[in-house]
Amino acid sequence: GAHAPPLTASTRAVSMDDEKFDGMYMNLAQQVGGIEPLLDSFMGFLRRKTDFFSGGATEDAAKEQVLKSFNKHKSKADEEAREKAAKEKKRKAEEEKRRQKIEQEKKAKQQKQEDERIVDVTDEVATAGGLAAPPPAAGSSSTGEAAGSSEPAAPEAEAPAAEDSGEGTGLVPLHNGYDHGTYRWTQSLQDLAVYVPVPAGTKAKQLVIDIKKQHLTVQVAGKEAVLKGEMPQTVKVEDCFWSIEDDPKGAGRLVSITLTKMNQMEWWKHVLKGEPEINTQKVEPENSKLSDLDGDTRQTVEKMMYDQRQKAAGLPTADEQGKQDMLKKFMEQHPEMDFSKAKIC
Known about the structure:
Layout: H1 22-32, H2 35-49, H3 59-119, H4 123-129, E1 161-162, E2 170-171, E3 178-179, E4 184-187, E5 191-198, E6 207-211, E7 215-220, E8 227-230, E9 241-246, E10 253-260, H5 295-312, H6 318-333
Antiparallel strand pairs: 1-2, 3-4, 4-5, 5-10, 6-7, 7-8, 9-10
Pfam families: CS (PF04969), Nudc_N (PF14050)
InterPro entries: CS_dom, HSP20-like_chaperone, NudC_fam, NudC_N_dom
Domain CS: 178-272
């Protein structure tokens, strides 16, 4: 039968890279079941419909033509693979660079927040912080007990509430906390220690101790909860713990709970909201611990303590004194201005 002319570059000007045939080839490949059957089918087409095998070209020339086409596309495939690998390498490098940048920005932001939390002490925190150390009463301890230490001695008599005489209000603190009868507590800047007396023979499995970020429950099973409610500040739950032991000062047992503060630059007024508040201006900071602090933190704590002493004496804080000095200097530089009616806060 008649044969079609040889499919050579001179008679067929269509590039084999023309993607418009991809759909047809893909359909054919799926029908014949793979690459090898596809090549075999194409060779059969050349045999049946062209003179590729029966024409004037020698066998070596025909093989050379097939190999030339193979080498051409093998070279292109290798080049495309190299380009793809280079792009992937570049993409991964850029992704790693972005990841490192995000991580650095995150660390910088966290450091900035930490610095601001330590350094930016507002008047409100300075007031509530109550870091001043008023002269201790005769026979009293000059430093508060740290959380986790042996529980404090019970007071011989209930301490009176502080009068509102410019030195704050609330209960006079005992060991920077208070003894409420059903429980007592102490605190340092870092944590609180809560002590709850329970009946003799009480086992740990009979206790319900639930410590959440800002909620505390202390209860003996089958009895009314001794403590249950919202704490005034947040705690680091993973650093909180409790234990039960024989009460060294009684016939019963004692539950000891340590609550690690999230904000370790502030004194608590009570363990739970709604409980009686202590006067934080009368707490006794552990001055001996200042040497353990880093420079910036120590400077901040010392400033808070100075401000507290100034407030207790009815004198301006460091910031207030600075503002007054600036105002005084401004008034001296502008004698022509009348400040007699100025309202100065």
